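Appendix C reproduces, verbatim, an entry submitted by the partner laboratory led by Prof. M.T., so that reviewers can inspect both the input and the predicted structure.
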Amino acid sequence: MASNSSKTAKLPSQGTQADFYGRKYFGDVRKPFALTVMGQRLYIVTSPRDISAIYKNTTTLTFDELVRDMMLSFGASEEGVRRMWESPRTGGTVGSLHKVLAHAGEDYYRQQFQPGHRLNDLWTDMQGRLSASLQWDAITGESVLSVRHKIKTVSLMNLCQSTLLSSAKSAVFGDRLLQIAPDLVKTFVVFDDKSWKLTYKLPPFLAKDMHNARQQIFAAFRSYFALPPGERTGATWVVDTLETEMRRIGLEEHDIASLFGMPLWVINGNVYKLCFWYIAYLINDSELLTAIRAEVDPAVSKGLQGLEARLEDCPRLVAAYHEALRCHTASASVRSVAAPTDLGDVVLDVGAKVLLPYRQLHFDASIFGSNVDEFQAERFFNNPELSKSPNFRPFGGGTTFCAGYHVARREVFTFAAIMIHRYDIWLAPTKSGDAQQFPRCDVRKPSLGVLPPLAGDDMILNLRERCVNVER
């Protein structure tokens, strides 16, 4: 069998250029510093202590303005956005009745995606779909580059996209959405890759690819929500509840379709990239692959029921997950200053924006060790408490902590465990006979989550079914 080894590149440590070089410019003391960008005052906060203080401030520092802007960017009308932020409701189908729907919606997502019966129902469906999509006969289409002698040569990135995105979309919205728009996964990948243009509000003539993809996603949702509920069954509680509440405040299909585009992006935009990096590191390190396979084989052999709990008891699987997050997330959060706010010895001005970049925290050598620019699978295995450090913020924090944390974790663990349990996996040889280059991390484009590999970088793998205990 070919060697599972290709040389990994040093990881680019800087988050945004401003936070990395600005911090260095001011002597790396981690005090907040300010920039003026196109007339907008922007404070950049790099200290874990200051970031924690900002999380606790929900009165003079607000996230609402960014949410409003994103709703409009996704195509919602001014009137639709206004209604989402109207005075608190006096009726409705479920809790959070003393909040505007924009805030109540955040509560609904937390109720759906945090541990409990709603997450369990969703996960049972999603896990079954993911497992089915990773069966040998189901690995088809553009993911498969060739088949020869019971060996499939696959694109790792395409495999992650096709299995994870389709499983998540169908589990959340039911089967009807992908029946309406069979190419929605491909469309979403194009949008996700170009979504930084939406963040920067580039006009359509400078971002035709992104705007075209966004319009196709909108059209799919508009057709979906135009159908009678009986013709699109299988959606999760949060989809049904939010739709009911949106219609109750007078929103029509245009705004409903637009407003569901944003959570679709958040729910789907990170897991497939994180799974890509996770599997890439496993295949690049045969000792790590062997160690994690020894952990997960007994867990997966017992079947899908209760698998998520058994995988939590696999310390090397968990440690490698945390290290992949540390190395490849570039999450950031933004607040608007609604009133003068003391932050240490700095007073934040009204009307300014506050940027909380997390990537630079993950490369703090005083916390994570001198080799922070390398993937080290033993880092979190030797010190599991690092995952609780205020320097480790892959999912943000405070009121903007990612509601999808638990389901994302389960998706990555399950995808990786099933893959290495069912298949022998090794690097496919190149035409030239040279070793494959390990994918490089793309830090050039702004990102709100997991960084992708550079365009054109992939990992081409050979898969062969293993002789293992049949999963019950």
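DSSP finds 21 helices and eleven strands in the chain. Additional entries are available on request from the coordinating office.
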